[in-house]
From TrEMBL:
Listed name of the protein: Cytochrome c oxidase subunit 2
Source organism: Cheirogaleus major
SUPFAM superfamilies, alphabetized: Cupredoxins (SSF49503), Cytochrome c oxidase subunit II-like, transmembrane region (SSF81464)
Gene that encodes the chain: coII
Family annotation (InterPro entries): CcO_II, CcO_II-like_C, CcO_II_C, Copper_CuA, Cupredoxin, Cyt_c_oxidase_su2, Cyt_c_oxidase_su2_TM_dom, Cyt_c_oxidase_su2_TM_sf
Recorded family membership: Belongs to the cytochrome c oxidase subunit 2 family.
Signal is among the record's keywords: no
Spans through the membrane: 27-46, 66-85
Reported function: Component of the cytochrome c oxidase, the last enzyme in the mitochondrial electron transport chain which drives oxidative phosphorylation. The respiratory chain contains 3 multisubunit complexes succinate dehydrogenase (complex II, CII), ubiquinol-cytochrome c oxidoreductase (cytochrome b-c1 complex, complex III, CIII) and cytochrome c oxidase (complex IV, CIV), that cooperate to transfer electrons derived from NADH and succinate to molecular oxygen, creating an electrochemical gradient over the inner membrane that drives transmembrane transport and the ATP synthase.
Length: 227
């Protein structure tokens, strides 16, 4: 999860988030180089009194400053499209989890099992235990296995919501009357926090998401206890 005065992203816990972070660094480096070049040219123009007339009116220069931005856009677009297709790719899931957004809580249903569903409300500050995080802890965590492809079916029963877990690179809108689908897979166990990221009413800030990712053996033990 995020730390105070953190400048970068949360640590990636899924292959998709790792790719997004690599793409962010790639694009940021291009932006940094462009900004440095523009700053250098501006400072040069302000400090240099002499001008070269053939440079100010030359077809070669115009050709370069037309082609160069196109090449830069291609260098940004190609990896961006690659990640976009990776995020939309739906593999054969090992588990399906249906998520419904409400004002202002989430409900979850493990569709591969009978009668395994529950609501997840934010834990009030007065009921927090030592070590639990204010405004981020819930009464019922979502327990999922690691290193397995999980299909998320996300919708809403009232207004627009958005099911978002930053460290997993997942952000999918919950729209009434529409069932959105995304794939989730984690590379390591842990507890991951998220929140609704679509303004959905007065208590929009109070519908957190907590995922507890555990090895398959512990997930099976949790299933037996729940069933």
């Amino acid at each position: 999860m995020a730390c105070p005065v953190q400048m970068g992203f949360q640590d990636a816990a899924s292959p998709i988030m790792e790719e997004l972070m690599y793409f962010h660094d790639h694009t940021l480096m291009i932006v940094f180089l462009i900004s440095s070049l523009v700053l250098y040219i501006i400072s040069l123009m302000l400090t240099t009194e002499l001008t070269h007339t053939s440079t100010m009116d030359a077809q070669e220069v115009e050709t370069v400053w037309t082609i160069l931005p196109a090449v830069i856009l291609i260098l940004i677009a190609l990896p961006s499209l690659r990640i976009l297709y990776m995020m939309d790719e739906i593999t054969t899931p090992s588990l399906t989890l249906k998520t419904m957004g409400h004002q202002w809580y989430w409900s979850y249903e493990y569709t591969d099992y009978e009668n395994l569903c529950f609501d997840s409300y934010m834990t009030p500050s007065s009921e927090l235990k030592p070590g639990e995080l204010r405004l981020l802890e819930v009464d019922n965590r979502v327990v999922l296995p690691t290193e397995m492809s999980i299909r998320m079916l996300i919708s809403s029963e009232d207004v627009l919501h958005s099911w978002t877990v930053p460290s997993l690179g997942v952000k999918t809108d919950a729209i009434p009357g529409r069932l959105n689908q995304t794939t989730l897979m984690t590379s390591r166990p842990g507890i991951y926090y998220g929140q609704c990221s679509e303004i959905c009413g007065a208590n929009h800030s109070f519908m957190p998401i907590v995922l507890e990712l555990v090895p398959l053996k512990h997930f099976e033990e949790w299933l037996l206890a729940m069933l």
